[in-house]
Amino acid sequence: MPHKPVRKAIFPVAGLGTRFLPATKAIPKEMLPIVDSPLIQYAVDEAREAGIEQMIFVTGRCKSAIEDHFDIAFELEHTMLARGRDTSVLASSRLTPGNCVYVRQQEPLGLGHAIWCARDIIGDEPFAIFLPDEFMHGSPGCMKQMVDAYQNIGGNVISVLEVPRHAVSSYGVIAPGESRGAITEVLGLVEKPKVEDAPSNLIVSGRYILQPEVMHILEGQEKGAGGEIQLTDAMAQMLGKQPFHAVTFDGNRYDCGSKVGYIEANLAVALQRADMAEEVRAIAVNLLK
Ligand code: G1P
């Protein structure tokens, strides 16, 4: 029997973005651009490429710029057209009417809680999650690679990548089982372990395909690491009951939750863009002198 398709994605975007203050005082961190597209746009494009139809944003106060971004900017388009300007640059920022949903996470109780806020919209089907500040850059995109794997193996699929051992405490970490190519069985999951307790240096890197049962588990999930309701803890309870695999993304990952990772992402994308690579390379070489 084919596995139920992944049609819906949750984008938790309620975080305060304190690491980027004062830039994020009045704009959401997800609206910070990589060259000329906001981070959230890259995540939505990655979802579309993977065949996902419905985008569910779990937002909070002061996040209305995200809703405006994916809307029609009537005055802008009208004015540009009247001046004979090309508006195609705006095409990917328009979501299909009725296919984007915004729900609010009223209190910052953790990632698990944010996901649970979308439970009624998810209903009884598998769904994807994108953490937009994990910027996954490659072709095909990370979620497309995961959906391709999911179509064969079903169950739950998360993306993982290797980090230096000393860095594991900032992440969810897996205990790996057997591997076949890019696919690894997940035997254990722990959120933000101490370095000495970590089962590996393979971290959960912000992309998930989960079965709807995780919502029932989240309903009663106790607080975990950092006093927050953790998605990782809820996923750990599904191990052994449902298939659970990790996919190692064939592409580049930039941690845009950190300032240095954000600068790296901008530079990397700029150096791949036909319209600016040459100029940016010359500037970078000059700065490094
Ligand atoms: C979250 C998840 C963690 C994951 C990380 C990826 O942590 O809880 O499992 O490894 O994102 O960036 P956060 O960055 O919200 O602390």
Explain how this protein is built.
- The protein has 289 residues and is an alpha/beta fold.
- The protein has two domains: 245 residues, Spore Coat Polysaccharide Biosynthesis Protein SpsA, Chain A (Alpha-Beta Complex), CATH 3.90.550.10; 32 residues.
- The strands form three sheets. It has a nine-stranded mixed β-sheet. A two-stranded antiparallel sheet has the order 2-3. A two-stranded antiparallel ribbon has the order 7-13.
- A hairpin with a 2-residue loop joins strand 2 and strand 3.
- It is globular.
- 39% of the residues are buried.
- The mean pLDDT is 95.
- 1-O-phosphono-alpha-D-glucopyranose (G1P) binds next to strand 11 and helix 8.
Structure at a glance:
With about 290 residues, this protein is α/β, with parallel strands linked by helices.
Rounded to the nearest angstrom, the distance between the terminal CA atoms is: 60 Å
Class of the largest domain in CATH?
Alpha Beta
Helical fraction equals 25-40%
Poorly predicted regions: none
Fourth-tier CATH superfamily name of the largest domain: Spore Coat Polysaccharide Biosynthesis Protein SpsA, Chain A
- Main-sheet strand order equals 5-4-1-6-11-8-12-10-9
Total helices: the number is: 10
- Could you say what the CATH topology of the largest domain is called? Spore Coat Polysaccharide Biosynthesis Protein SpsA, Chain A
β-strand amount: 15-25%
Label the structural class.
alpha/beta
Tell me which CATH architecture of the largest domain applies here.
Answer: Alpha-Beta Complex
Q: How would a crystallographer describe the biggest sheet?
A: 9 strands, mixed
* Large-scale geometry: globular
What Rg, in angstroms, do the CA atoms define?
Answer: 19 Å
Number of domains: 2
Whole-number average pLDDT?
95
Q: Give the oligomeric state.
A: single chain
Q: Got a strand count?
A: 13
